Amino acid sequence: MNDKQFYGKSFEFDNDFFAKQKQFGFVKLYQLGEVCFENGHEVEQHRQVCHEITYIIAGKAKVNAGGASFPVSQGDIIINSKGQTHSISVDPETKLRYFYIGFDLDMERHNELTSRLQGFYEDKFNNRAVKDEYNIMVFFVRLLDEMYNGMEFSEILIQNYIEQILIMVYRAFHDRKPVHLEASPSAVSVGDTTYLMIRYIEDHILTISNLTEISDHLGYSYNYLSHLFKRKMGISIQTYLNYKKIAKAIELIDSGRMSITDISAALNYQTVQAFSKSFKKVMNISPTDYKKSVKAYSGSEKRGV
Predict the structure, then answer these.
(1) Which listed residue, 166, 170, 186, 234, has the most CB atoms within 10 A of its CB?
(2) What does the radius of gyration of the chain's CA atoms come to, in whole angstroms?
(3) Are 31 and 24 in contact (CB under 8 A)?
């Protein structure tokens, strides 16, 4: 890899299997990793040799793919199909950090699932970016953790997480509107009311202390909104709030600017113990241990490991 390809990266954790793809179930893995680009960096136009899913962890950018141009930001999922050209222009005011997975499907393992997924990921004319409303980031975090640590039975868990990501992304694109289409929510629409609940949680993640705030804000009873959310999203509104809080906690831990105690308080947990229990339930690791792994990873990057 030449100097130009390294230029503009704060860090990258890359697993490259282009020379020999690694098989995980029905998925042929080409590449898996996480990267952070500096403000204003340009990822030059290139052609995909495999399908790729990109998950924006933080920052803003403009993506050009298949002749279309659209803005992306935190929580956006982007698909680039095999053979498609694309480029990325990072916003001048922010760094851009994202997960990525490059893959193809093993059609020798032909069944209804692989056929539907192949048709979806090969369709270059679909709108190729949506907001994550299923907390798919958690699967990426767990996947990278297994790949990085390589513990006993990691191969099984890696296959499981990869397949879940591909299926959940498929579901997200089929169930949600494109990110670059401006939503015009109306309180009389069931779908739009759910959208307003999601927006309220995301906009008030650091201040919300009780879910009844949402019902007060929207003018509906909490029981009505709770049943509506569960019917539309498949999970309870409390579970969704918990996932979003943990996603925010990960962002704050990664920044390295706050202690676990401060993060717990910022997210309105009554105690650090309650925060730790909630974090471990989602991530299968305590926030303290996660913070240690972030420091260890950052240290290895600085040492050039």
Answers:
(1) 166
(2) 20
(3) no
Start-to-end Cα distance in the chain: 16
Across 38-164, the runs of DSSP E, i.e. the strands, are 42-47, 51-58, 60-65, 68-73, 76-80, 85-90, 96-105, 129-131
Q: CA 4 to CA 182: how far, in whole Å?
A: 36
Alpha helix stretches (DSSP H) within 103-221:
112-122, 137-149, 154-175, 190-203, 212-218
Residue 207 Cα distances to 10, 245, 266, 281, angstroms: 31, 11, 8, 22
From CA 203, how far away is CA 200, in angstroms rounded? 5
Residues 266-288: tens digit of each pLDDT: 999 989 999 999 998 888 889 99
265: exposed, middle or buried (C-beta count within 10 Å: 0-12, 13-18, 19+)? middle
* Two structure tokens written together for 211: 């879910």
What whole-number distance in Å separates Cα of residue 193 and Cα of residue 207? 21
Q: Give the model confidence (pLDDT) of 32-76 as tens digits.
A: 998 889 899 999 998 999 999 999 988 899 998 867 788 999 899
Could you tell me how many helices (H) and strands (E) the chain has, helices first?
11, 11
**Cα–Cα distances in angstroms (integers) from residue 186 to residues 97, 191, 227, in the given order:** 33, 9, 18
C-alpha to C-alpha distance for 261 and 246, rounded to whole angstroms: 14
